[in-house]
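Changelog entry: the WD repeat-containing 3 record was regenerated in this release. Current contents:
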Amino acid sequence: MAEEELKRSAVYKEKKSKGKVTDLRTNILMLGLPPPDYLLRVASNVYTNELEQTLLVNAMTFVH
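Regenerated structure tokens:
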């Protein structure tokens, strides 16, 4: 979901640079947060004993 939101944001920036401005609505499922902030929020709500498995499942490009 976060990856799709990043793609959608990139398309919006491209359209904005061409002058085709439309409002970019935030994804309500991501609580209106940018993708990195949302992933951090989700990871911080995972129990510590399950954190290792959770991080291994996520794409390593999003893990900071």
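Residues 2-17 form the longest helix (16 residues).
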